[in-house]
Protein 1
Amino acid sequence: MRNLIDILDLTTSEIDELVAVANDIIESPQKYAHKCAGKKLATLFFEPSTRTRLSFEAAMYELGGNVLGFSEAQSSSSAKGESVADTVKVVGYYADIIAMRHPKEGAPLVASMNAGIPVINAGDGGHNHPTQTLTDLLTINREKGRFDNLTVGFCGDLKFGRTVHSLIGALSRYKNVKFVLISPKELTLPEYIIKEVIEKNNIEFVETTNLEEVMGQLDILYMTRVQRERFFNEQDYIRLKDSYILTPEKLENAKEDMCILHPLPRVNEIAVAVDNDKRAKYFEQAKNGKYIRMALILKLLEVE
Amino acid sequence: MTISPIENGIVLDHITAGKGMELYKALGLAELDCLVAVINNAYSIKMPGGRKDIIKIDAEIELNLDIIGYFDPGITVNVIKNGVNTKLPKIDPPKEIKNLIKCKNPRCITSVEQELPHIFKLTDSENKVYRCIYCESKAK
């Protein structure tokens, strides 16, 4: 039985397979409309989420399956002090597959050890969010047609951004990928990711504080939000916050076919005016999330 | 100071000076009812600073070699039977350790679910880096 806890649980050829299935679903959704008839997805969301939970639920409904679950810890037995292991053991009797979000890091791994049915990590604190990474990869594939030979810029909060860490891990397995890491000094990529992921895979990378300076090099710009609470003092935040807000002016030197991604929700880090730019793909990315989750559910349920 | 030789037992040699008591506790040697000697700051040609700690256990017991491998793979384990000393092969750091150390990450699931075993995996053998299997935090 397979689970998806970390994006690196999947080999690159498995990612290729999932992307191929997702692309086929987009082309011919009717072929998949009854693939999961009679199957149930349990969405166990111990903390609130909009896109992830709804896209999992939409994915299962579009496969002809059903959904049960809860959307906050208060409406689950964990509010009474039940352990993750006990909760999922019981859910394992009622459902065929679990998608779990939990504020504590490692909770989905505990679930996968106890559920008896496949478990998908739908986000565990600041740790992993592999289906977001799959969503990012499907979007990159659809926009660029490849995962190799890409210069990928990551901009904003690279220190705490789990989506950035996971995507860097996933892309580090492809040839001739270059990373451009754009962030304030306070929010640079953690040293262990540079050492244990980027340098270990001999990936070329540069670190910079200036987005406009590197804009022209990028094939993909992955934006994240610089949050006020990450700064030790308010003055630094005020000084830096606008540097990492994407505006049409900052895109002047960008490649014509550059692709702007963002895991959403967006607050103010991408100006609304950018939404009309043909390079803005973040809403497309959110749409792709449903299709890749459909492909993932089919794979983990071993539905042909 | 003289500590008499052991006829049947175990001698842990080449322990970094000052770490003997820590290893004594980690191995749970306080629970034994046999004679156990912890020798601090013994003279050593091999060890840096010319000092080492030694633990002598006057009984044939089963030691958890994973603990020794995690603690310091440089420790020499001598098993003595009828006065004959057999030096065990070098102990590699274990691939996994369970309930030997605790994850200190307050965001880790182990911080709220007390009954979960604390398991760490060796992720970088060159630098002896262990990470929690749940949250991947580095062992401290």
Note: The helical segments of chain B are 20-26, 65-71.
Protein 2
Amino acid sequence: MAGTLSAGDGRRAARLLAPAYLWLTLAVFLPLSAMLFFSFLTAAPFGDKPVEATLSNYRAFFETSTYALLLWKSIKLGLWVTGACILIGYPCALVLAKQIRGRAREALFLLVILPFWSNSLVRIFSWAIVLRGNGVLDRALDAVWPGDVRLALMFTPAAVVIGLVHSYLPYVILTSYLALQAIDDDIVEAARSLGARRLTILWRLVLPLSLPGLLAGAVLVFVPVVGSFMEPRILGGRFGTYYGTVIEDQFVAVFNWPLGAALSFILLAVVLLILGVSSPVLRRGMQ
Amino acid sequence: MNALRIAGLIWLGLVLVFLYAPILVMAAMSFNASPFYQLPFDFSTRWYEDLASNTAIRTAATRSVLIALAVTVIATALGTSAALALFRYDFPGKRILQVLLFPPIAIPWLITGTAMLIFFFAIGVGRGTPAVLIGHVALALPYVIVVVNARLVSFDRTLEEAARALGANPWTVTRRVTLPWIAPGVVAGALFAFAVSFDQFVVSYFLAKPGDSTLPVLIYTSIRKGFTPEINAVSTLIIVGSMALMLVVARFFSFGGHR
């Protein structure tokens, strides 16, 4: 119906849209462009130092293996966390969508989603209290299984994974649940009356039909985890150096903004690539 | 009740334990007298009493609330009008405008936050509360537009046409017909905007001036300096508050929960 707009309607539409999109341009799209520009400079153009155009910030990424290895470490972290979220979250969504009915389902669903909308920093902090040496988890384990059993999870990569799974698990449950709920119970019933076993129904019918939702959830977990820095800092200790923490350092500790901008932009390219490849699935999953 | 169903319920129960146990432990420890979380548990409200006299935390908390309120007003107003325009009018480039809502949500906040820091320095805004406010509104806007739009989908367009045919001008139509119908969506969007701003850490961390920070940034710097039970107490208050807020949202806006 494009082009059928009268001049008056066009003005009204523009008046309603302009404030929001000007704001987004000023606060998101121009900054992203500025970052791209910055990443090709020798220094931040605020001081007295002469500023020149350079590729050295990108060369730093490709010539030394340090940054590439850290990016790979962050991607691996993303895969671990996403995998764990799927294995834990999908069965959970299945139970919620297909087994529980009525008000109990509504209440349980809300209970699962609720932590997701509370402060993620505080939730990571709460894991630090649980996992710390001689902390609550150690004490509880000691009570169940006396002896010198020490988990010593705090400040290990495992602690980072646990914290991140806790942060992002509700995403997978939410998107899988929405997809599973849309599956007509009559189809499942028909398959059963034709003699299909439960596992066959799950594997051949329910899983393929809910796959877009599951994959949408996986992308929504993977992307922020690759860029995470607060969680590794708090829970990872000396194992907590990831690609995200290196970018953070460039901006708050080392003050090499152009290098930070280049590293951020490489991460953005990776993220956009992933979003681009998965966008057909995402669109179906969001419907 | 067969074995598979029972296993499913146990699994769901374990997931809920995983989600809530650390929060409950943190809440319990905020009432423990020992500053090093030593057990046995010794009930005390001293950390909450200390909180009342801790001016750094109180100033940061006040700043966070004020910023979140401003973000709520601005993002709700701009977001609702944009959602209305996207719903009412068909025009070339509408698809692009809708797609443009996703970068602020989908790009990791680390990238958005550092990009904002660079840009705000370049144009002279610098770090500080104005920068935080501008950033938060941009992050909250897409949520408001999406939530209000979800409510608009169920709106019967002919109601607007009927009102217009009866002689109402566009503003009257919006105020007397459209807005009352989408009010629950607008309220839910406003609450989302408040939550996005109040809980926001990453973008605030890069945009807030050191020593002039929001509550989450203050908590992060305190955690990195060492554990303090006062942070524990204020964290407990935050999590209780934001969960209560989301229960209110759930009243206004179904998350696709029932059929």
Note: The domain at 55-252 of chain B is CATH 1.10.3720.10 (MetI-like fold).
Protein 3
Amino acid sequence: MNMTKDITVNKIPVRTWNHLAMNDADVSGVNISGKAEAKVAFEGVTAARSGVLKDKYDDIKTSAGEELSELLAVSGIKPDIYAFDNRDENAYVKIGFDKGENAGNAHLLGIEAKEGSVITVYVDHSEDEDMSLFQTKLYAAKGSLIRFVQLFHSSDNAVVIDDIGGVCEDGAKIELYQLFISGAEVYAGCKACLAGNDAAFDAGIAYRLAGNQKLDMNYHAVFEGKRGSCDIQAGGALRDKSYKLFRGTIDFVNGCAGSVGAENESVLLIDDTVVNKTIPLILCAEEDVQGAHGASLGRPDEELLFYMQSRGLDRQEALRVLEKAKLDRVIGLMPHAAMREYASCLITEKENEYE
Amino acid sequence: MSQEVLKIEGLSVAVDGKVILDKVDLTINEGEVHVLMGPNGAGKSTLGYSLMGNPKYEILEGKVTFKGEDLLEKSVDKRAKAGLFLSFQSPQEIPGVTLADFIRSGMEAKGERVSLYKFKKNVKSDLELLNMDASYLDRDLNVGFSGGEKKKAEILQLLCLKPALAILDETDSGLDVDAVRTVSAGVEAYKKSHNGALLIITHSTKILEALSVDRTHVLVGGHIAAEGGPELVDEINENGFEKYLNN
């Protein structure tokens, strides 16, 4: 198998002016060489034998959009689907990918949390390939919680397309945490459908970009049930000639009365040469809802730098601390100490590589 | 004989083109406690920020020697590494950086490598002294801290970084009586354990109760209008600054 196609991903639900180049992202030469083999480690948990996600998988919409889904469908790669009925907060699953000579570059994953259960899944993205594609579908049954954590620390020439779709039934919640540490070009996002009443979606996204790195993101929370809630918090630091585009959509569908959605982005612009684009969007077809968005973008505050320098840090060290703080904020939300430590080590390793 | 730590000679400073300090002279020796008093707008904080090297403050003329070296030619971080510390009136918040990591960054910048485990162990008695729960170490620096907690966090940094001279810029302002007492105990501990020198900028005298003041300086309109011993603090408490304003 070796397929190559130019595709468009990360379309926003309602288009804005084309000249802003924010409506979507074109990715040329998207190549699928075969299925990437996942290495799955179960820490204190086992996957349940059966679940409903295998029947729902194809119906769950994702953030990258139809063109990627069609390409993956044509490739014939089958998803690895895991269902969990876990109650132990200390348990988690860690997934990495085989980097052997014959390893493929595309993987489809399904995670289901059964009614009232909780599961945390960490996915370690350390791709060396020029191009890698991942599609994950999350299904949170009634009253369940899925925490999906991704650590992107691919090589400096890797292009990664990561695509997520999720569905939350009554009282269910999906928490998504993403750390973008390295990689030449990363296209990422999540479309979360709050299908049931009292469903929730929270996302904590952090990035630190330098050189010519590019990060293109698309997050879309669709409120269908009543009293849904969503909180998307993104933040990061941009250096050199890096490029970042954040799309965040809160989509109140008719009938989602009592729902509350918020999104916020905080970006530290270290150099004048970076490109920083943000497009927050609130779509509202229901009256009884609350939606909020905010963005804080700017150069590091000189008084803050002075404060840090007054404790002995030179200007570059102070900037590095501020950049790392953006990532640490999300690391602090990860529930397992061992994985927090692992994530911190990845950041330190990358810092040492750059020095 | 104690050694000279700081010597300010004829220091004039401007902010946005306006002269705030005019030919200030002041000398502090090792282990001495100096108090800088003055009405609002006299230039007290300007002196603290100028000595620490805030780029907003323009040095017009004068000379400052710190431990025998020219202070004004050093960058802010080098002044801190040389042993100068400024406790801020309104300390900054840094989301994502814990109090422990921030203090350790400062210690490491001075060449002192310390593991998080060892740091937390060593800092325990300082936390107790300041009535701070150990959980503060894992909280983001000053984020969600009350005014009193921020000031305590400043004094905790003072105790950990062990500078040769600490400038406390109205550390007691906005604090209730108990909090002033706690902060004052921290300052006293710094002085005793490190024989540190202090320049205490204050309107109040509560913070001075546990300390033995060596010299008092009254700053009015950017000038040192009067100098004396600890008795000058009492005189100002009683009569205010009026007599200096009229001179």
Note: The CA atoms of residues 227 and 258 of chain A lie 4 Å apart.
